[in-house]
Amino acid sequence: MIQGKTLDAWYKSHPVIRELISLKEVTWFNPTIAPASEALVDVGLSQDDVKDASERLRRFAPYIAKVFPETAEAGGIIESGIQPLKDFQQRLLRESGVLGVGTLWLKKDSDLPISGSIKARGGIHEVLKHAEDLALQAGLIKLNDNYEVLASDTALEFFSRYKIAVGSTGNLGLSIGIMSAKLGFQATVHMSSDARQWKKDKLRASGVTVVEYESDYSVAVENGRLQAENDPACYFIDDENSPHLFLGYAVAAERLARQFGLSGVRVDTDHPLFVYLPCGVGGGPGGVAFGLKLVFGDAVHCIFAEPTHSPCMLLGVYTGLHDKVSVQEFGIDNITAADGLAVGRPSGFVGKAMQRLIDGYYTVTDEELYRLMFLAHELENVKLEPSALAGAPGIVRVLNDEQYLRRIGVSSTQLVNSTHLIWGTGGSMVPTEEFASYLDKGRALQKSS
């Protein structure tokens, strides 16, 4: 019995589950999506909350610029660029036999400073939120102060009295650990078995305590939570349920809108935007999608992408069980090369809050992730880790589903004017030797395809 039903009963009520269990690539477009004006209330957060997060990041910008010199040119603002993928788009569409329409872009969160992934924005925001709360309460700063003062020995000694803990498959741990240690916090990252060794090494080199587990992400998170529960000085950052992480990610949308404006990209009813977001537990893509819906409304369509071995968000939303169900309960092993997406149980907060705002979900094999990583590097000279390529097949999945396009009211003319965006979630900090081995796998898979 799985959640009170036999497997055969699940197959009858939810036929896509049979394909998920078979580890086939699946695409499912959500029939319950609703207009943004109606569904945004489900989230329980507002544009003012996103603005508050954005302003906090600006207050900390002088401090960030001082302690992380690589951000100085951008004034301490942690942001990534966008890049058109003309040759990569042509290859994807030619391989699938789909007519070339619209333009494909990459949002290069793979190149974000400090920790080189989408998690830099949300993870760092929550650490800064906690630091600001403590410093304001202690009278160390005032809201209108120059936050460079937090780089002082006095501030370091103050924060060293406190601890921060998090459970992670890798990238969130990097962001939170590096930022926490830089401020002076005693930082502990509980890491699952699939986390890459180089990420553990980088954390330890930054002064972070890394606790390793033979089990998956859920166990790492639970142990981080237990650490904080047993220590009043310890603050736990909850990747599964944190609104502060979520809002940090959401800030990206207003910045993307400015970048599109500078690049001449229009987003409106006649120029729809499709965004393909790799999804693990759901906080990062959920926060970004929330921000996008606030900025672009119904002109943007967000689609989540997951590995075939870890389709937790698709399973949670499709069954309506959200975090009450895991992929392991259905016999799916949650073992994938896409380490940042190796999550067996989705965020209940994100699944429920965003279920009427996310257009669809699809899965992709590890082999395809490696192959696409190779092609993206060869054709566009971009450095992405396997997880980040989950968004790449999205344009083909959308263009191949006429029923979905009819349902959302996108005509052939609108498709010609459409923009498609892969959210590149990580990769720039992958060590050279490891990245070369990824490319070798991708090259071999491309040759045999």
Keywords:
449 residues; alpha/beta; globular; 20 helices; seven-stranded mixed β-sheet; four-stranded parallel β-sheet
Polypeptide structure, described:
This protein is an alpha/beta fold and 449 residues long. Helices cover 47% and strands 13% of the residues. It has 20 helices and 11 strands. It has a 7-stranded mixed β-sheet with strand order 1-10-9-8-11-3-2, sandwiched between helices. A 4-stranded parallel β-sheet has the order 6-5-4-7, with helices on both faces. The longest helix is centred in the first third of the chain and has 21 residues, at 47-67. The chain starts with 6 loop residues before the first helix and ends with a helix.
Mean pLDDT: 96
> Which class best fits the helix and strand makeup?
alpha/beta
Q: Based on DSSP secondary structure assignment, what is the total number of beta strands?
A: 11
The main pleated sheet reads as: 7 strands, mixed
Distance between the termini: 39 Å
Envelope shape? globular
Assign a percent range to the helix content: 40-55%
Strand % is 5-15%
Poorly predicted tracts of residues: none
